[in-house]
Amino acid sequence: MLTVISFYLLAFVAVAAAFMVIAARNPVHSVMYLILTFFSAAGLFILMGAEFLALLLVMVYVGAVAVLFLFVVMMLDVDFVEMKQGFLNNIGFGLLVAGILLLEMLMVGATYVWKDGSTVVARGDEVSNIEAFGRVLYTDYAGVFEAAGFVLLVAMIGAIVLTLRDRDGVRKQDAMSQMSRTKETGMEMVDIEPGHGVG
Amino acid sequence: MVVTTGLLFLSAILSWVALYKVGIGHEEADIKVLRWMDVGDMKADWAFKIDTLTAVMLVVVNSVSALVHLYSWGYMSDDEFKPRFFSYLSLFTFAMLMLVTSNNFIQLFFGWEGVGLASYLLIGYYFKKDTANAASIKAFVTNRVGDVGLALGVMTVFLVFGSVNFDVVFNAIAENSDRRLPFLGMEFNAIELIAALLFIGAMGKSAQFVLHVWLPDAMEGPTPVSALIHAATMVTAGVFLVCRASSIYEAAPITSGFITAMGAFTALFAATVALVQNDIKRVIAYSTCSQLGYMFFAAGVGAYSAAMFHLFTHAFFKALLFLCAGSVIHALHHEQDMRKMGGIRKKVPITYAAMIVGTLAITGIGIPAIEAKIGFAGFFSKDAIIEAAYSAGIAGSGSGSFAFWVGITAALMTSFYSWRLIFMTFHGDYRGDKHTFDHAHESPKVMLVPLALLSLGAILAGAVFYKYFMGNAGDFWHGALPSKYGAGHAAIAPDYLMAAAEGSADGYDTVKHTGPFAFLFNTFHGYPRWVLFLPLIVSLSGLFIAFMMYMRGEGAAKHIRTVEETGGGPLYNFLLNKWYIDELYDVTIVKGARKLGDIFWKIGDVKIIDGLGPNGVAAFAAGSAKRLSKIQSGFLYHYAFVMLIGVAAIIALVFRTVGG
Amino acid sequence: MLQTISLFAPQLVLAFFASQLLSTGAFAKKDISVGVRYFAVGVLVLYALIGFVLGQPTGTAFKGALIVDSYSHYMNFFLGMSAAAALMFSKSFFQTEKLDRFEFSVLVLYCTLGMSIMVSSNTLLSLYIGIEMQSLALYVMAAFNRDSLRASEAGLKYFVLGAISSGLLLYGASLIYGFTGSLEFTHIAQVVSEGATPGIIAGMVFLLCGLAFKISAAPFHMWTPDVYEGSPTPVTGFFAGAPKFAAMALIARLLVGPFGDITTQWQQVIIVLAVLSMFVGAIGALTQTNIKRLMAYSSIANMGYALVALSAGTQAGVKGMLIFMSIYTITVIGIFACILQMRIRNGMVEQISDLAGLSKTNRGLAIVLTMFMFSVMGIPPLLGFFGKFFAFIPAMEAGLTWLVVLALVASVIGAFYYLRLVKIMWGDENENEFVQAPKTLRGLAVITALLVFPLLLLPMISIPAQSWISQAAASLF
Q1: In the complex, which subunits touch B with 3 or more CB pairs below 8 angstroms?
Q2: What interhelical angle do C315-341 and C70-96 show, nearest 10?
Q3: What is the mean pLDDT of residues B514-526?
Q4: DSSP per position, C444-473
Q5: Which is it for the CA torsion C443, C444, C449, C451, positive or negative?
Q6: Are residues A161 and C107, on separate chains, in Cβ contact within 8 Å?
Q7: Mean pLDDT of chain C
Q8: Are the C-beta atoms of residues C40 and C106 closer than 8 Å to each other?
């Protein structure tokens, strides 16, 4: 019973918060609602027994992504009111399309419930989430896992290509030169007379 | 120039060799070069079918073409577009060779259209001249009418026989002789229908009555072209077609009768018109038309070999006449009106001599009813035709006896107008511009050599080849034409002809008349002698009448003056205006077609087809493009929105059928 | 183990050398972009050919995550070759625009790796990973000219809309996973054959919509003109060729594999996409003045034609799609090689009107470009005609005559703007002076032109090629 109540509570909060993300006037509020949505989703994961995923969601999405969003929103001077003008122009038609999509999804859901009603059943062997991941991640899914690594690498290359600039006159950290410093190159012995300074 | 002419002389020589080998040595060939069309059951090859019929045509086409090429060196010497001229001529020769060497109807049709195109291009060769352009269009359009017939004929052949190959079709005629086909709402015998449709094509190309109107106008082209295309070769394609398809015509007696009547009528009609024409080339053009009529009625009565023989000899003497006319025109600075000529025989003696030879040949001067064959080319072939018509007539063919009497009458007229041409051009006093006369000169040697060679042909072609063409000596035709006149022409009593030709008439000269004119009514090789003498007599009569009219006293000048003063009698004008056929066409067909065309153009094309079709679609497309570019606003959320609409709509569409 | 390696040698080659080049470039003291480019081209060619060197092994590996069959061998060959060509023709552009950086070559390699995973994916997971790897590389390449506002905008638009499409795709994948209980194609096919629930069908539609974005089929095409216009021209040339082909191949594998038993359902989706794409592409191009935008609409329309072939749902249909897309890819490479050659004094040729009088200033180029235009239009005897022929015949045989009629109407409308280009090249007065193009570009244009016209029609090439494609198509069924 408690599970059912918490499910509906969390689900309701998730949907309501998602709605507020687009409805809120202040963009900072929007991001806050987004964080609330993520939390609710994490709660739903926990209800299903996927605690690892839930914590991952909180750590990655709330801890990193949403906070990044917050930074961006606060740092960029974007006139959200103006942007929403166009949005409101199409609201009628937009609602119609949304309604149709909702209806369609309801139909899918309805058949799921009424026709076969198969549900996800937890695995019989009592292993923890992490152990379950660990069993397959480097075995069955090794290839895909490697490929996913490459996806991240590509994203990294992209970020560097698009943003990194070699500009002159900018102080940069050079790890190699830092480490290969010796006493001779890194230090200069100067006799300073009192009251005169270095030079 | 050198290349085309040289190659043509080579092929001319080779074609004589081919004629010898095929005609005497019977080395027929049917060479498939490659598969051209293979669509469903429709298979057509590029092929060379060489039998005697083809070989004869090869000789005619290549020889005349080669001589005309050579002649053109001189005739076209001051023309600025010579390369164009020679390439057209060669294109024509190529297409004509395709036509005569094909082994199926499709390749024949290709050649047929090819010569039509070349003819169109060459008639309109002087493209700066309005009349030449009009004439070329007229020729093309008129030929198109015939070509529709031919195309329908070929399609019908395919429908009935399931093949377009000559051998296959001709071998299957017997088993299809009772088939009936609906056409234009009526039922016809399939073979008759094919024969008639093919003949419509032949009528167009060979300028038979109704579709003859283009040929005289085609004289707007350069004279060598007239000689090659509109006298010797292309216009005989129709005759060739009928002979090639002789197996079909054998099985189509009704159509054959129609051909006989049509040919005879054209022979007469064209001859009457030729009587009064003043343009030297037009006289010869109508003469060509008339001679083609002869060939057709010969084919119509089943004397295919006579038709081919006349085609063969005619090619020589008619090309000769045209080239002589060209020589005259060349000498007189492109003056074609005979009323402004006269007495130039001393200026152009060789041309004059050649012209006389040609005229003797066309009028058929020779000694009939003797065993030795003496006479000009036309004598043998034309008389053979007239005899064939007589045979058909006495065997009970109505169109045959019509053709016989028409042939005789036309021969009289032929003689008259031919000699009239000679007298008006070469005799009497010069009636044109003095300056031109003073500068008149004999043509250069390149023009005279072809004249000489053709004269030789006009003199000898008949006597030498008589026994082969008519007598089928040494089995000359070897099955290319029905050697004994076939079953469909039983009416003709073929043995008469064969006997006459072979000179072994014993057993036929059975009827012995007595009395003062018995000599005339007694037969020679199966024919009463009067039949044999009549063509010669009418020829001489024609010569006599022409001489009386144009050589006595003031001669031509007086007649010209009379006409100018009185405007000529009604009959004269009727003939001068070619029976008002052109005017009739203009009133009925041309104007009507133009009106119909206007309706189709203004309402059908502009409003309905363009309005709903290209223009409508274009306008729709342009409008849609504008709307599309409006949606393509550049705003991200518009794009995303469109995607979501797409998803929703597609899911809705799929669920509609799933019924979930 | 060794067998797995031989199966995935193409992908291994790409992954290994891409990473190797990346680290080489990162640690190099000077700019080595030229060397990296040539090396990358070599890697791509090796990738294209290695499957054949190893004797075309077939099978699955990584517990069925990836499948190698004739189809993927064919696709690897084609993707590798076209990516190599695109990389070649990018050289002079990037050098003259002073944009040449080694990362571009590396990104092309990773993009190709993603595509090769796509075309041999056998589970929804590897499908998604492949698509993401390819897409991420493409997003970056679109914005490669980071100092240009238009390029940045193009990259951003592409990225955001691509994210939405990925969302659709994942939504579909999760629906399918939920209703079938598996990510593997073979297992999904088994469940589908027992009866497709609306959930599976909805999932399939979402999946298709996500993929339709990748091939820029209408109504998921909206990004195409903007991105094509904004991206650097060689990148646009790359976009129009290999990635489209890869996504199309993936769609084909998906449709006849897991969803082979619900042909009637997906057929409707494909038909809708095809009709919309053909007409949006044909009509949208009419008012364009920018060559790259024009090519964008052209590629939308051509995707429509390829979908017509797929809509037949038969082996012949897949074969027709492969032939059409192969020919299309060759033609696109050729066209872009031509566009990249045209350089007037104040920069690259971008506007259609800049082509005026090309026939007088550079006759050879005008002839080649005209030939490509006629090929794209589908004028025999050029190859484009056969592409359309083989694409439309299966649809005819499947009873979709009306669809083919619509396709022909769209082709006629489309012919207008190709002919307009030809007319401008040959008919209009010269206004610009063109700068002499580098040899590689000219060579590439001529090679593809030879492929489009005379060479590929030779029987000794066309007959084995056809049987090869037939074999590739057959391996899906």
Answers
A1: A, C
A2: 10
A3: 55
A4: HHHHHHHIIIIIHHSHHHHHHHHHHHHHHH
A5: positive
A6: yes
A7: 87
A8: yes
- The owner of tokens 């799609």 is C321
Q: In the predicted model, is pLDDT for residue C161 greater than 70? A: yes
Q: Burial-class residue C20 by CB neighbours within 10 Å (0-12, 13-18, 19+).
A: middle
Å from C297 to nearest chain B CA? Answer: 11
pLDDT at C168: 93
User: What is the pTM assigned to this prediction?
Assistant: 0.64
Give residue B108's pLDDT band: very low, low, confident or very high (50, 70, 90).
confident
Q: What does R_g of chain C's alpha carbons equal in angstroms?
A: 21
Question: In this predicted structure, what is the pLDDT of residue B165?
Answer: 81
Q: Which helix (H) or strand (E) holds B523?
A: strand B523-524
Domain limits for position C332? 2-476
What is the separation of C-alpha B398 from the centre of its chain, rounded to a whole number of angstroms?
26
**CB contact, 8 Å: A72 with chain B?**
no
Residue C147 · residue C101 · CB < 8 Å: no
Whether the per-residue pLDDT at B504 is higher than 50: the answer is: no
> Does C149 contact B at CB distance below 8 Å?
no
**CB C118, CB C130: distance < 8 Å:** yes
Rg (CA), chain A: 27
Q: Is the pLDDT of residue B499 over 60?
A: no
B134 or C297: whose pLDDT is higher? C297
Assign 3-state DSSP to chain C and report helix, strand, coil percentages, each to 5. Answer: 80, 5, 20
Contact at CB, B650 and C202, closer than 8 angstroms: no
Q: Which residues contact B393 (CB under 8 A, 6 or more apart)?
A: B400, B401, B402, B403, B404
> How many folded domains does chain C comprise?
1
Contacts of A150 in chain C (CB under 8 A): 15, 110, 113, 133
Question: Buried (b) or exposed (e) across C62-98, using 16+ Cβ within 10 A?
Answer: bbbbbbbbbbbbbbbbbbbbbbbbbbbbbbbbbeebe
**A141 contact residues in C (CB cutoff 8 A):** 62-63, 65, 125
Packing angle, helices C198-214 and C263-284, rounded to 10: 30
pLDDT in tens, C444-453: 777 777 776 6
pLDDT, tens digit, 9 for 90 and up, residues B579-593: 777 777 777 777 777
Range name among B172-176, B274-278, B408-412, C328-332 with the lowest pLDDT average: B172-176
Distance (Å, rounded) from C-alpha B410 to C-alpha A161? 99
Say what the pLDDT of residue B329 is: 82
Lookup result for tokens 């990738």: C47
Q: Does A104 touch chain B (CB under 8 A)?
A: yes
